[in-house]
Write a structure and sequence with these properties.
The chain is an alpha/beta fold. It has helices at about 20-35, 45-50, 60-65, 90-95, 105-120, 150-170, 185-195, 210-230, 240-245, 250-255, 275-285, 310-330, 350, 370-375, 385-390, 400-405, and strands at about 5-10, 35-40, 55-60, 95-105, 125-130, 175-180, 200, 235-240, 295-300, 335-340, 345.
Length: about 400
């Protein structure tokens, strides 16, 4: 590689999200146009701490080819540097002027630490971070979405509509789980778009503790309500964040033991949440002598590498160009963000962190008019249904939606 030519280095951390290639493509194109060599490191931070990193050199042809593809042309990794030695020669030998990271807040924090370390080694580079997550839980200004969310939701809606059609055709009930470690945006968006009769997200439990029993009773509430209306099918959407927020005693009841990633997050993808809930649901239905056929559906990795839809192609283009704008403005250590008017603005981790230095996830606004209207139009037992519900259960009050969430 040409050691005299100024370069930028692109790195992707965490898990995939639709639009990563769109960001990489845009960043590569605008910097190539300005005479920079554009390099990408495979396997995220693991590559930066390797003696023999796998480096990809971009040209216009490759950058142009990947723009609308799903996945990432750069292999991703959740590797979190600890005591490993940084490969400083990678930055020196390639005259790297800018490190562009694409990932979550953990990736951004690691990039800042690397830049600070390089400065002590008299290697001066800038770093700019492009935030991504299909969970949509990063507290961006104006409640702007994170890139990848709308594409993942769109893919989930396609699957959700097919599952709902199966439910209607076969007179089944399906228990569906969707990604969202801390917030229920994805589950909410899919369920609302598909007109599922029940959705359960962690934000609903702001007045009491999340328990598996309450989750199961909410699903049964929808089943009974639909039986009253002569509807023998449906889909109940449950956010995986329900499991993330369960107490240890709740998890111990079903013998769940999560593994944890290098950032200390439980690896929910290793466990089929829908299967667990479906087994518990069938057990409770048997106890109630309710003959209902239920099946589990797990919405997980299917959503992460789909092709980005037009919304995210536009957003990712704007963010990619925004990287160049912030760099040209001599900014570093910041996240690139676009406000509701499409204006590029820098964000710093300190802008998002609380007094303890933590970034609180952006949750579904449970009190917004939109959210309230959606929940009002779900199917569940209220006190007006008690008499008819007695045909199916002896204690309908136990399946009253509002009482479950307030007990």
């Amino acid at each position: 590689m040409n050691t005299c030519e100024k370069s930028i280095l692109i790195l992707c951390g965490g898990g995939p999200a639709p639009g990563i290639n769109s960001v990489i493509s845009t960043v590569a194109k605008v910097f190539l146009e300005d005479g920079y060599q554009v390099l990408g490191v495979q396997e995220g931070f693991k590559g930066l701490f390797s003696d023999n990193p796998n480096i990809k050199k971009f040209d216009f042809s490759h950058a142009d080819r990947i723009f609308s593809r799903g996945g990432s042309t750069l292999v991703m990794s959740r590797f979190k540097p600890k005591a490993e030695k940084l490969n400083t020669s990678l930055f020196k030998d390639n005259n790297v002027k800018l490190l562009v990271t694409i990932g979550g807040d953990d990736t951004a924090s690691s990039a800042n630490r690397i830049t600070d370390y390089l400065k002590k080694e008299d290697i001066l580079i800038s770093n700019i971070h492009v935030p991504k997550t299909i969970d949509n839980d990063l507290p961006l200004p104006d409640r702007n979405p994170t890139f990848g969310f709308h594409s993942a939701k769109d893919e989930g809606v396609k699957i959700g509509n097919t599952v709902y059609e199966d439910a209607r055709t076969s007179r089944n009930w399906f228990v569906m789980s969707a990604m969202g470690r801390s917030a229920g945006h994805l589950a909410f968006g899919i369920a609302a778009s598909c007109h599922f009769p029940m959705m359960i997200i962690p934000e609903m439990f702001h007045k009491n503790e999340i328990t598996l029993d309450r989750v199961i009773r909410l699903i049964i509430s929808a089943i009974i309500k639909r039986k009253i209306r002569g509807i023998d099918y449906g889909v109940a959407m449950v956010s995986e964040g329900i499991f993330h927020n369960l107490s240890k005693s709740e998890l111990d009841q079903i013998g769940l033991e999560f593994t944890y990633d290098s950032h200390g997050h439980p690896e929910l993808g290793n466990v089929s949440k829908s299967h667990i809930l479906n087994v518990l649901l069938q057990k409770k239905l048997d106890e109630l002598n309710l003959s209902v056929k239920t099946r589990p559906i797990e919405l997980g990795y299917e959503l992460r590498c789909c092709r980005p839809i037009g919304f995210d192609l536009t957003l990712c283009t704007l963010l990619g160009i925004g990287v160049k704008k912030l760099y040209d403005d001599n900014l570093s250590g910041c996240l690139v963000s676009a406000n509701s008017r499409g204006e590029i603005t820098p964000l710093y981790l300190s802008d998002l962190q609380d007094e303890e230095g933590k970034i609180k996830p952006r949750l579904v606004d449970i009190n917004s008019e939109f959210t309230q209207l959606v929940f009002q139009n779900l199917h569940y037992i209220t006190n007006n249904d008690y008499e008819l519900a007695m045909d199916y259960v002896d204690n309908p009050v136990a399946y009253d939606f509002n009482k479950i969430l307030n007990e």
